[in-house]
């Protein structure tokens, strides 16, 4: 356990260090990359809760990532255009105030997850994978063909939204904000993992019958976990919208679901900081390979394959096992 | 006479053409061990599954302390006080023995929807769980993951879990299976203790244990309860001797 | 009598935890050997090592004169070791008949003969194995091992969960198998039956073979000390 | 003065052919100029808008480029262009011209060197009206670009619309639509199905026994696509601002040198990449990019020999150019396009009126 | 709308269904029977199409191309199984997901490396071009008829293989308990290689057949992958019959949805918006179908309940 704590600290600290060094060297884009890692890590931590602890392999988390993003995109574009969101039966105006945007993003993803989860959790295993995908695809196709907010073209937020006391347009400030959110999420996830709820969720993954016969409905436990998981991923989507100052249906696509899942598996399923490691490695590979060769995705594939074959339990599993023996 | 804790009336379950429970009447009185014996495939586990809620009877009613639970979901029955052990162990393999018991303690010690406190250092969970492990003699294996326990040890753990639930009824499906001779003897003593806490509906093929423990024995054949009585009645019943006990046993 | 199976001082570990510290036993051609010991003493581990489902890091396992230490499980099975595993492990989604057919290899044991041995399996031939009763599954597991036409039948918990009369039937069946010249290695909890059936007993204690001998020599003292009865 | 160009384009995945053509066309012009002061940084956007946005950040912040270009898809352009121009950088679009960027969202630093999205369709609509087509069957994928195409066509088309069918983005089987076409009373089918969708449709249509003539914007009949559909596309009419047989010196030189350099026929996209680089080089010759106003004026002059002949910018920095009608023909073994007439002379997009620069 | 048109659309739906089944057949085998989540199935489909196009272009014969597609996809499958997947059977499903995701990248970029970025030319063979006339005045392309026949043949063959042969039983047994089937003397490693090759060959076969009427290009496999998963999940994993029924259901729902949705909406709004909205709903329809089926039958139509 202590090795894992150290691993987590090194990862989180590393993220901060890279951003600060990049700031010192005026490598602004590196800060953007690290911010991206942090946001993907949050999305991954969200998924990891359902997938790692709960064994709920959701292939539809892009839905929540995208909904979080669109919540921000829609509200802030209304605010920027001075058009209220609705006037009847009561007036709802847009906003560019991040805390409110985040809250809305989290709520919207949570509500969507409640509805999607309530139906999806009737199934299990591969059926669950596919039914979550199905819901995400429905939302994706809806977003593509619904013209009000840009459809396939997406929706631009011309100016990054604001956070009191902070110049969010400054890359380092925005990173620090995201980083603070990441820390909070890691902390919450850690507590949750060790809590009674976490224990029960985990037990339900290993043997649902065990949990049922102890008088607990695995369905309810899983549904709650699914909703929390979606909320965290939705929050990440909200941050991602502000990072890019842009949202589009691509955030909702199945490729995005796949990528979030890849972060988790790459980093180590069920490990607290796994998604951070996974997202960092993925973004790094993408960035460096992308600059190296025309057929860089070929090498990205090889690299990922290498990790699966030779690092059991993802990066976290790989590193920690080594440590445990030494 | 006291009211039965568990009362089955005309419970019937069919799988296609096969009638696995055929109009079964069965009850369990406070303080007793009621053994259910019968040839393989007679329908004993199927009956236990219906009582626990894993299967829904095709017809008939099941009452628990007077309340009709025929349609209640399994988790609710467990909360009401039905604890069961499985014929094939159902445990969380990656968890330690202790954590497996803790999961069963949680619903009765404040519920599972607590998101912050550390479960492993929550004494409201660990203490009752440890106590239960002690009773089955697994206290030294508390921290061992279930996947590393031997078959027999898992059977013991199943019982510890049932104990930890402080139930009103124990449903036990072949608890002796896989226990070595010494284990069986110790378990027999344990069950004799347990019936003071709650009555036991015991499915078992180990006749030494059944005859030593049971206040009443019911014999099931082809889904039907064909005889109910004391150990001596049953031992003497020629039908049971032939269909179940066989030539020289017991 | 030349030993068909010869296990010599094997050491086996689960990760860092060693479970067997030198277990030796031999099963001769046509011989029936009982492996005894309390819960968790290493019986199953020994059997899994014989079937190559686990690797040993000390000692030797020989079958029919060959060192099988480096063989894949399926080769050992084809050489003639038929396993009835602990917990039965029937192929749940397959029907009873499919379970048997999947294991079949040419030889005296055929579907018909297994059906004759366990008529219940015939009755239930189209049912998914997962929905069989516990005892039915045990019969299926034995029948399935027989379908491979083994030279050595290895039974872990041979009669677990069987009704007394079936248990007697199984013992009768195994005895009959033995009479046909089949070698048998068996783990079971019923001392009485093991003693009546086996030619030799091997007692395990904390991962070591601590006693071997004819059933008649298994004194009450040894039984109390190692088997707890 | 040195000039640093950042190119964001699609180099991997399904749509990579277009990006590669734009890049190759662009690089060919740079190479031919022999100008050692022009440095081009190429990045792969994987056709993902978020990646494109981040690459734009990288090019501006880390590589400190002066000019950006390269984006193929409208949705990616919409994600990148506003942010880039807001930071004072120039963006030259070698493909994709969403209407927002031509109208309300126009920007003094944004130049479209290809076409406004509606252009080919408007020209096609006009041509259809002039050539006596009474009834059309319209078909496009159900996303904004598809809807724009249909709106564009209808803008200058006077005849009747028999049906308007929107297909699923990425659809591969068109049996149902073909049955509808066969059952309809239309004279002509006008469709916009870019990339693989178009290939699938044309192949399936040609084998279906349907006999209504096909028409569309050039995207579905580009050289890369004709190579895949082969003779199935023969006779199809399509509108384009460029064709490899356009008779002007710049184009001849371009087609020949492209073929020599890369061993394949240039496509529409290659010509656009080439023209974009030519425009940039022409501006560089006149002004330093560090003097943004002078550089912009130089760009506005569009003082270069375009492969499409005459080329000039409207006030909203979108082209005024002639759109031709082409027909798919077989030249020897190669299936390719031939210009058969002018669809619309000096076409100008209708959104410029809303543009306030 | 006329009745013959409606009939023709139903026929189109059935035909699309058979095409989907053909694409899903290999996946059902590998996924349903071996329990392997193979995201690279679409890549093998692409490999088949490219091999067919490449060989057909070189030799001028579609049929040689078809043979090549089987061979190439089977070879690619064997390579992948022996070098990568074999090590992952006893691992978590998620490791398989990541590994096969990596394989998609490798296959896609590898193919682009070899064949370039432009779609390839592949046409239907002369013998199967043209159309046949059906009763009711419907003319139907011969090639699509051939696809229906191929799909049926594959369905029957697979069904027989999996449920009737000992090979099939052993594969399913291996899926249930790998260790145990090995302990019974079955060389499960070799068996799995064979099955995977077979699944890959089926994917390649579908790629070649379907590729002839679609676009042969890098990335053609992924949409197919998703559809194939939808199909087998609706039908119930591991059931060939389910996959067939699922495919037909999806085919009919999709075709009729695309056709009827805009038509129905046309009664309540103008044609243009009816087209757009109807098509938007139509594109979601198969996913709705899947969600409804799974909500009502969590194990698919013919699967054992999950
Ligand atoms: N889902 C099912 N579908 C079909 N038949 C079933 C199903 N479940 C159980 N059966 C059959 O019902 C009968 C009763 O099974 P059950 O498990 O209750 O027997 P049992 O009395 O517990 O036997 P044992 O002592 O061997 O465990 C058996 O013949 C079994 O095959
Ligand atoms: N997968 C495992 N990982 C770690 N340790 C294990 C594992 N399986 C068994 N052990 C340990 O190895 C020892 C021997 O176990 P084994 O299963 O061989 O005992 P056994 O004699 O068969 O007992 P039983 O009669 O209970 O089946 C036990 O201490 C057990 O805890
Ligand atoms: Mg039973
Ligand atoms: Mg054992």
Report on the architecture of this protein.
Chain C: GO terms for molecular function: ATP binding; ATP hydrolysis activity; branched-chain amino acid transmembrane transporter activity. Chain C: Keywords: Amino-acid transport, ATP-binding, Nucleotide-binding, Transport. Chain C: Belongs to the ABC transporter superfamily. The complex is a heteropentamer of chains A (326), B (250), C (229), D (357) and E (306). Chain A has one domain: ABC transporter involved in vitamin B12 uptake, BtuC (Orthogonal Bundle), CATH 1.10.3470. Helices cover 74% and strands 1% of the residues of chain A. A two-stranded antiparallel ribbon of chain A has the order 1-2. The C terminus of chain A is likely disordered. Chain B is of the alpha/beta class and 250 residues long. Chain B contains nine helices and ten strands. Chain B is globular and about 55 Å long. Chain B starts with 5 loop residues before the first strand and ends in a 5-residue tail after the last helix. The mean pLDDT of chain B is 89. By secondary structure, chain C is of the alpha/beta class. Chain C has nine helices and ten strands. In chain C, strands 6-7-8-3-9-10 form a six-stranded mixed β-sheet, with helices on both faces. A four-stranded antiparallel β-sheet of chain C has the order 2-1-4-5, covered by helices on one side. In chain C, α3 runs parallel beside α6 and α4 packs antiparallel against α6. The mean pLDDT of chain C is 86. Chain E has eleven helices and two strands; from the N terminus they run ααααββααααααα. Chain E is 74% helix and 3% strand. The complex binds adenosine-5'-triphosphate (2 copies) and magnesium ion (2 copies).
Outline:
With 250 residues, chain B is α/β, with parallel strands linked by helices.
Structural class of chain B: alpha/beta
Helix content of chain E: over 70%
Bound molecules: adenosine-5'-triphosphate, magnesium ion
**Spans of chain E with pLDDT under 50 lasting ≥5 residues?**
none
| Total E-strand runs of chain E | 2
Structural class category of chain E: mainly alpha
CATH topology of the largest domain in chain B: Rossmann fold
**Spatial separation of the terminal alpha carbons of chain E:** 42 Å
Largest sheet of chain E: 2 strands, antiparallel
User: What is the CATH superfamily classification of the largest domain in chain B?
Assistant: P-loop containing nucleotide triphosphate hydrolases
Principal-axes shape call of chain B: globular
How do the SSEs of chain E run, as a string of H and E? HHHHEEHHHHHHH
Mean pLDDT of chain E, to the nearest integer, reads 87
Order of strands across the widest beta sheet of chain E?
A: 1-2
User: Roughly what percent helix of chain B?
Assistant: 25-40%
Report the top-level CATH class of the largest domain in chain B: Alpha Beta
Estimate nothing, just give the exact number of structural domains of chain E: 1
Transmembrane segments (chain E): 16-37, 44-64, 70-89, 101-122, 142-162, 191-213, 225-252, 273-296
Family (chain E): Belongs to the binding-protein-dependent transport system permease family. LivHM subfamily.
Protein name (chain E): Branched-chain amino acid ABC transporter permease
Membrane topology (chain E): Multi-pass membrane protein
